[in-house]
């Protein structure tokens, strides 16, 4: 098997990143307008995007594909106004997800699901400003949605909740991967993933 990424691999990354991001945004956009739901937004994102990622995992055969998807996802999030922290988080968690999936030769369903769950933690980058740059995040929310919205967001995002947000994203990603596996069983069999 050729180890270098080919044009076909890059096309797959681009197509599946777009699909992954569109499906994630279909969940995130309506929920994002309700401040009390922001703490669970990342978890719902990882739950629903498990299906497109698991389809993508049937195409991943080379190291770096998941890392690139993480970088692109963070970049898309930055371009939609959610800050740049998704990019470094996409690099880190995409790389770790790649390592996990590679350890199963990209053919182990369990390792692909675990790799997806770790990869999914890139979404925590969108929460970093709310926890670590509170004043700037408040000002940003206030200028975009008004002071009442900004105040409510900060009320439902106390510092201690970051652990619950991370845990929720990881657990929902595991569930999303399992749902994707169940729905896509025939795709896995055809791709020779066990």
Automatic annotation (TrEMBL):
Q: Which Pfam families match?
A: Trep_Strep
Positions in coiled-coil regions? none
Transmembrane among keywords? yes
In terms of InterPro entries, this protein maps to: CHP02185_IM
UniProt keywords (A-Z) are: Membrane, Transmembrane, Transmembrane helix
Q: Where are the transmembrane segments?
A: 12-31, 37-56, 113-139, 159-180
| Family annotation (NCBIfam families) | Trep_Strep
Protein name, UniProt field: Trep_Strep domain-containing protein
Q: Which organism is it from?
A: Clostridium saccharobutylicum DSM 13864
């Amino acid at each position: 098997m050729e180890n270098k990424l080919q044009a076909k691999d890059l096309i797959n990354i681009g197509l599946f990143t777009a699909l992954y991001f569109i499906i994630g945004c279909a969940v995130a956009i309506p929920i994002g307008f309700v401040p009390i739901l922001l703490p669970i937004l990342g978890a719902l994102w990882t739950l629903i995007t498990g299906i497109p990622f698991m389809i993508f995992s049937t195409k991943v055969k080379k190291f770096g594909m998941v890392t690139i998807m993480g970088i692109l996802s963070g970049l898309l999030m930055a371009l939609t106004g959610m800050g740049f922290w998704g990019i470094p988080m996409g690099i880190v968690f995409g790389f770790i997800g790649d390592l996990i999936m590679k350890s199963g030769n990209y053919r182990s369903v369990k390792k692909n699901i675990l790799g997806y769950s770790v990869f999914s933690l890139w979404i925590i980058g969108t929460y970093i400003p709310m926890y670590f740059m509170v004043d700037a995040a408040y000002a940003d929310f206030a200028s975009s949605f008004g002071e009442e919205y900004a105040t409510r967001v900060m009320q439902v995002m106390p510092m201690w909740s970051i652990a619950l947000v991370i845990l929720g994203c990881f657990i929902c990603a595991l569930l999303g991967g399992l749902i994707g596996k169940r729905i896509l069983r025939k795709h896995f069999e055809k791709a020779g993933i066990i």
